[in-house]
Structures are given as C-alpha cells and as structure tokens.
Amino acid sequence: MVDKNEIKGAAKEAGGKIKEVAGRAMGNHEMEAEGRADQVEGKTQKNYGKVKDAVKDQVRSH
C-alpha cells in the first residue's frame, strides 16, 4: 500500500519542477531556487513514506 507521504512528496516534487522551470523561463532566480528546494523536500517526503511503508510491511510479516 502506498503511504500518504509518498503521494504528497511526489506532488511536491512535481510542483517544484514546474516552479523551477517557470522561474528559469521568467529569469526569476529566487523562484527557480525555491522550485529546486521543493523538489528536494518532495523527494525526502516520498522516500520517508517508502521507508515507513516498508517498516509496516516488515512488522506485519513477523
């Protein structure tokens, strides 16, 4: 089962990519940097969800 953090993280990562590209297109370096930061935050949250889900699976199997 997919953890809610995986879904939220993936959404944040995608939104960050959009923000980065938009910032680059407009020449807005601050927006571009925020987009990259959002992507890192999203990846981190997504990976946290994966680990959390894996731990739950291990606990259930024992």
From TrEMBL:
<feature type="region of interest" description="Disordered">
    <location>
        <begin position="1"/>
        <end position="62"/>
    </location>
</feature>
<feature type="domain" description="CsbD-like">
    <location>
        <begin position="5"/>
        <end position="57"/>
    </location>
</feature>
<dbReference type="InterPro" id="IPR036629">
    <property type="entry name" value="YjbJ_sf"/>
</dbReference>
<comment type="similarity">
    <text>Belongs to the UPF0337 (CsbD) family.</text>
</comment>
<dbReference type="Pfam" id="PF05532">
    <property type="entry name" value="CsbD"/>
</dbReference>
<protein>
    <submittedName>
        <fullName>CsbD family protein</fullName>
    </submittedName>
</protein>
<dbReference type="InterPro" id="IPR008462">
    <property type="entry name" value="CsbD"/>
</dbReference>
